[in-house]
Write a structure and sequence with these properties.
single chain, mainly alpha, 5 helices, globular
Length: 108
């Protein structure tokens, strides 16, 4: 029965069961994201990314890394932004506080 579908669905979604995970770095689950990241915060961060992605020295890249941490985008070349990094950023601009809190929630 060449090409017959056994109904398991495993072949069409490699890694869906976590077997192909990259050492636990696969990121938060949808449930964790829903619990930690409000739609409003996600929209705000997306707006910051759009507004800054063309500006030096890489402001947009930081916001993109937040979006990666929030599970909104994927980029194998960038690591997700961390709560520790957001804590440092918050010392420069208080607007990072809700982002740091959400990242901390995801990391806990």
């Amino acid at each position: 029965a060449d090409g017959a579908d056994s109904g398991s669905g495993q072949d069409s979604q490699p890694g869906a069961d976590g077997s192909d995970s990259d050492g636990g770095q696969s990121g938060p689950t949808a449930e964790q994201i829903a619990a930690c990241v409000t739609d409003e915060l996600l929209e705000t961060v997306q707006g910051y990314y759009e507004a800054n992605r063309g500006k030096p020295p890489g402001y947009g890249k930081n916001w993109k890394r937040v979006l990666i941490a929030f599970g909104a985008v994927q980029d194998p070349e960038l690591a997700a932004y961390t709560a520790d990094e957001a804590s440092q950023s918050e010392q420069v601009w208080a607007g990072w506080k809700p982002v740091r809190e959400a990242l901390q929630c995801l990391e806990d």
